[in-house]
From TrEMBL:
Lineage: Bacteria, Pseudomonadati, Pseudomonadota, Betaproteobacteria, Nitrosomonadales
Organism: Novimethylophilus kurashikiensis
Catalytic residues of the enzyme: 91, 163
Subunit structure: Homodimer.
Binding annotation for substrate: 5-7, 169, 208
Name assigned to this protein: Triosephosphate isomerase
Alphabetic keyword roster: Cytoplasm, Gluconeogenesis, Glycolysis, Isomerase
Length: 246
């Protein structure tokens, strides 16, 4: 599975070119599930261009409540209205810059499943945490917050994305072996609760996934796909990463 996270980039004209190029470039490919998570105002455009194609679309965030006086927020059902299959939950940029806590991320995960949207649940350690050698502790805490709220069967309704924060946007991602070790740790921790769920759940990798390193990362046994930032903004690069998935 390969998912593009456009973050806060794009405009109507530019999106149109990118989306149409993706449809064209991936038309004959069925090797993986493909999706793009676009800024909320452009969901209608993603829906219009991608409907009927083999590329799904989704949001990058949503509120955990179904409605209310939350100026500037987007309710889960609003993503449903625009045909979203996915929503990114707990991205490190939202955890860090918007102070989203583990309990909030867990609540969002639960609500997304409830309204029928697959959450792409992000977890990963910061550079300080990595350097302090507490990666597993941090990732376990983030995972457990969701697991304890929805249980293994609930978790199975979503997709996981391990994104070491120090690898995001830096061009210096984790090595395949480094990434594999944490992916395996995550899978083992889920297996402690439910072996079946652990063996079937998709764990994507994110953080400077590029054309040059995608195939190697995706060949690791516990890496089931990629969550791509920068390279998802360039049609040829995103298409190449999608084609590298198997
Ligand atoms: O944050 C990311 C995807 O969610 C990764 O971004 P980059 O691919 O730009 O490092």
């Amino acid at each position: 599975m390969v998912v593009g996270n456009w973050k806060m980039y794009g405009n109507l004209a530019w999106n149109k070119t990118l989306l149409e190029s993706l449809v064209e470039g991936l038309r004959d490919y069925r090797n993986a599930d493909y999706a793009v998570c676009v800024p909320t105002p452009y969901l209608f455009q993603a829906q219009a261009v991608l409907a009927g194609s083999n590329i799904a679309w989704g949001g990058q965030n949503m509120h955990q409540f179904e409605g209310g006086a939350f100026t500037g927020s987007v309710a889960p059902h609003m993503l449903v209205d625009f045909g979203c299959s996915y929503v990114i939950i707990g991205h490190s940029e939202r955890r860090e810059l918007c102070y989203e806590s583990d309990p909030v991320v867990a609540a969002k995960f639960e609500v997304a499943v409830k309204v029928g949207i697959k959450p792409i649940f992000c977890l990963g350690e910061t550079r300080e945490e990595y350097e302090a050698g507490i990666t597993e502790e941090v990732v376990a805490r983030q995972l457990d917050a969701v697991l304890s709220r929805v249980g293994p069967d609930g978790l199975a309704e979503g997709v996981l994305a391990y994104e070491p924060v120090w690898a995001i946007g830096t061009g210096r991602g984790a090595s395949p072996a480094q990434a594999q070790a944490v992916h395996a740790f995550i899978r083992e921790r889920i297996a402690e609760q439910d072996f079946e769920v652990a063996s079937h759940i998709k764990i994507l990798h994110g953080g400077s996934v590029r054309v040059a390193n995608a195939a190697q990362l995706l060949s690791m046994p516990d890496i089931d796909g990629a969550l791509v930032g920068n390279a998802s903004l360039v049609a040829d690069q995103f298409i190449a990463i999608c084609r590298a998935a198997n």
